[in-house]
Each structure stands twice: as C-alpha cells, then as structure tokens.
TrEMBL record:
Protein name: LysE family translocator
Family note: Belongs to the Rht family.
Keywords, ordered alphabetically: Cell membrane, Membrane, Transmembrane, Transmembrane helix
InterPro entries in alphabetical order: LeuE-type
Transmembrane segments: 6-27, 39-65, 71-92, 148-168, 188-206
Domain of life assignment: Bacteria
Topological type in the membrane: Multi-pass membrane protein
Annotated compartments: Cell membrane
Length: 209
C-alpha cells in the first residue's frame, strides 16, 4: 500500500466517522452525564465493536451474512430493538447531570463496565456495518502485496481515527455539562437524544438491504 492510497483512505474514513451516528450520539450523551474520562469507556466499547466487525468481514463472514436473508433480518431486528430500548430509557430518565458533589453517586449508577458494554453493543448492533467493511477495504488493498499487513494497517488507522473523533464527541458532551445543570434542560436533552435513538432504531428495523 503506497502513501497516496493510505492518505485517500484516511480522508474517506474521516468523512465517514465524523458524521454523527448512534455511537457518536451515545459518546456525547455519556460525556455530558458522566464526564469525559468515564465516557472514554463508551468510546473504547465502540472502537472494539468496529474491530470485531472488521475482523469478521475480513474472514468472509460478511459475505455469508449478505447471502442469508434470515440471519441479516434477525441481526437487524435485534440491533434496531436495542437502539429503540436506549431511546425509551433516555426518555424516561430523570437523573440530573453529575456535579462534583454528586460524582460518587453517579459513579455508582454508571460503572465503567456498563458504559463500555453500551458502547460495544451500539457499535456492533448494525449488521450493515459488516457489509460496509467488506465493501470498503477491498478498494484500498493491493492484491499483489501481502494482504494481512495491509488489513492491519487499515484496521489500526480506522481505530486511531475512530478513537480520536469519538473522544472529541465525548469531550463536547462534557464541555457543555455546566449548561445542563437545570433539570429542565437535562430533561430536554434526554428527550432529544432518546428520540434520535428511537429514530435510528426504527430506521434500521424498517430499512431494506
């Protein structure tokens, strides 16, 4: 893989990742509620999900999923249902954003493992991402060179860009947390993010291949 191909790949994935999706929304939400440091667990969960999807796609399972209507349908329904569940949960949530004085209580309510698992589940819940990686990587791989090394380079590049951008989203959420000390604003934020999650989940469920 030459330098120009790699730079083109970086440009493509930067444009793809920076557009806010469910994982970016979750990172922003967790950054607002729990602070940037704790939201990094959400970021890492989403990044691990991407790595798993990349590996599965590289093994050819993405093609199997593309050929299996039943498997694709089941995974799509599960992924969409989980996003809708997160949306309903956000709508019903009344907890105020953490302040320094209430940090211990919020830490108890949101263990690092929970934030990590939410990031991972949201990241891996869309089976279309398997097909996405299966379609993306071949465009940047030179078949005349060792393919494993190229895959590792593409995967590591994705992980670095993904981690950086999702960390920025978490930081943005944390940065505006002071503005959301008002219970009314917190409720409005929860309703807005909940609605977006439900729309994303409903769109996934209703979408065709």
């Amino acid at each position: 893989m030459d330098g120009l191909t790699w730079l083109a790949y970086v440009g493509v994935i930067f444009a793809l990742i920076i557009f806010p999706g469910p994982v970016a929304l979750l990172c922003t939400s967790h950054g607002l509620k729990f602070g940037r440091q704790r939201a990094m667990a959400t970021v890492l969960g989403g990044v691990l999900a991407s790595l798993v999807l990349m590996t599965i796609s590289s093994l050819g399972l993405g093609a199997i999923l593309a050929a299996s209507e039943t498997a694709f349908y089941v995974l799509k329904m599960l992924g969409g249902a989980y996003l809708v569940y997160l949306g309903v949960k956000a709508w019903l949530e009344t907890t105020a954003v953490a302040t320094q004085s209430s940090a211990r209580a919020d830490d108890y309510r949101a263990p690092i493992g929970t934030l990590f698992s939410r990031g991972f589940i949201v990241g891996i819940s869309n089976p279309k991402d398997l097909l996405f990686f299966a379609a993306l990587f071949p465009n940047f791989i030179d078949v005349s060179e060792p393919q494993l090394l190229q895959f590792v380079i593409l995967a590591l590049t994705w992980l670095v860009v993904d981690t950086t951008l999702m960390s920025i989203y978490a930081g943005l959420g944390s940065g505006v947390s002071r503005w959301f000390q008002s219970p009314g604003r917190v409720k409005l934020f929860n309703r807005a993010t909940g609605s977006l999650f439900m729309v994303a989940g409903g769109s996934l469920i209703a979408s065709n291949r």
